[in-house]
């Protein structure tokens, strides 16, 4: 059996599929499992996993449409099974699956906008369940293929080698961060696609939180994020400039993960680095606004959700529709009115030994 995993929808989504990759390799040991990705960071993660045979990288966001169509048609006949990683409720992903010519095309039957996004092009489907985590939905997809129920579901998987460990050791030594120092990791960013930057907690709040944590715990705060999020880190430092708050710059997500491993606790928006933190088993405080936390809460790691739990939440579900807010009083109140003191108290409950 030759299986193509369409892991196109995002970095965090790809990470949340890693327990399913492990299950597929265990249930179908003779199968060849390839992955189609369009983010370099996903390629970096998947190429280090023993569960994946080959990575097919194609940046659909930047390539001309005709070139992308020719690339997809070049996959035709190479696979007898295609799996669309949950969530992938877009017509483009379903068309890619269909155009491969695979006889078995697995995908989720979405509760919203399924037909208009050509969900019917998949011929082995499970029905979306808003109470389940993305990891659980993906495991159910794999069960539909293999016919073997999961006895248990494992953690998210990210692997890095000695080079990345050495990079982290050298970086920390260069910043003179002692081994017994309390280190908080912050990720103030998240995806900007489909208006999702509205999920971000404000940078001035991250700055005030950093100030309180540094004062109380004699801590260092590391600011993480990709090159496109450098301005967010600079804004935080401009609000609170301290030698104990450091902007992290790396060359890859794998290097970032190796550095994150040093963190005592990670504070993050709903983002890909939230799932990296979960894969690293970091204590995590996840700042969640409009998203259904059932879908994306940090998987199998000690965590707490910082949320106002408004009566209108969650309002975001998986579809191509951009994120919007229907409130008349305060737009995106779920994020805008989540205060620093609430997040600070949550952190205090997770670090009782140093209170």
Give Rg in angstroms: 21 Å
Low-confidence stretches: none
The portion of residues assigned to helices is 25-40%
The averaged pLDDT comes out at 95
Give helix and strand order, one letter per element, not per position: EHHEHEHEHEEHHEHEHEHEHEHEHH
* Approximate strand percentage: 15-25%
Spatial separation of the terminal alpha carbons: 55 Å
Supply the helix-strand structural class. alpha/beta
Which of globular, elongated, flat, extended, rod-shaped describes the shape?
Answer: globular
Please count the beta strands (DSSP E, at least 2 residues each).
Answer: 12
Strand order in the largest sheet: 3-2-1-4-5-6
Major sheet summary line: 6 strands, parallel
Number of helices: 14
What does this structure look like?
The protein has 355 residues and is α/β, with parallel strands linked by helices. The protein contains 14 helices and 12 strands. It has helices spanning 11-16, 18-27, 40-46, 65-73, 91-99, 134-146, 162-174, 203-217, 230-239, 253-260, 272-279, 293-296, 333-336, 340-350; strands at residues 2-7, 32-37, 54-57, 81-84, 104-109, 124-127, 183-187, 220-223, 245-247, 265-269, 284-287, 303-306. Strands 3-2-1-4-5-6 form a 6-stranded parallel sheet, sandwiched between helices. The protein has a 6-stranded parallel sheet with strand order 9-8-7-10-11-12, sandwiched between helices. Strand 7 (183-187), helix 8 and strand 8 form a beta-alpha-beta unit. The longest helix has 15 residues, at 203-217. The radius of gyration is 21 Å and the shape is globular. The termini are far apart.
């Amino acid at each position: 059996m030759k299986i193509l995993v369409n892991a196109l929808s995002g970095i965090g989504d790809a990470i949340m599929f890693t327990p399913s990759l492990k299950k597929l390799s265990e249930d179908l040991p003779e199968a060849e499992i390839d992955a189609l990705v369009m983010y370099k960071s996903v390629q970096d993660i998947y190429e280090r996993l023993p569960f994946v045979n080959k990575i097919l990288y194609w940046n659909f966001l930047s390539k001309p449409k005709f070139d992308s169509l020719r690339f997809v048609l070049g996959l035709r006949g190479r696979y007898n099974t295609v799996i669309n990683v949950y969530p992938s409720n877009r017509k483009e992903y379903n068309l890619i699956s269909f155009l491969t010519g695979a006889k078995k095309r697995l995908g989720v039957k979405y509760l919203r906008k399924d037909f208009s996004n050509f969900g019917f092009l998949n011929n082995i489907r499970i029905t979306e369940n808003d109470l389940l985590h993305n990891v659980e939905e993906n495991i159910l997809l794999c069960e539909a293929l293999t016919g073997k129920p999961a006895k248990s579901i494992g953690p998210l998987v990210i692997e890095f080698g000695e080079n990345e460990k050495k990079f982290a050791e050298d970086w920390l030594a260069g910043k003179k961060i002692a081994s017994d120092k309390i280190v908080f990791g912050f990720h103030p960013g998240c995806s900007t696609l489909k208006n999702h930057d509205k999920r971000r907690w404000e940078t001035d709040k991250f700055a005030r939180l950093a100030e309180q944590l540094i004062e109380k715990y004699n801590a260092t705060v590391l600011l993480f994020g990709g090159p496109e999020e450098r301005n967010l880190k600079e804004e935080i430092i401009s609000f609170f400039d301290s030698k104990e708050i450091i902007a992290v710059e790396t060359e890859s997500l794998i290097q970032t993960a190796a550095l994150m491993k040093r963190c005592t606790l990670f504070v993050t928006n709903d983002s890909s680095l939230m799932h990296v933190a979960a894969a690293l088993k970091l204590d995590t405080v996840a700042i969640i606004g409009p998203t259904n936390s059932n879908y994306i809460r940090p998987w199998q790691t000690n965590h707490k959700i910082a949320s106002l739990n408004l009566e209108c939440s969650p309002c975001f579900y998986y579809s191509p529709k951009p994120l919007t807010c229907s409130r008349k009083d305060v737009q995106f109140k779920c994020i805008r009115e989540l205060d620093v003191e609430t997040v600070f108290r949550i952190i205090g409950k997770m670090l009782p030994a140093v209170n």
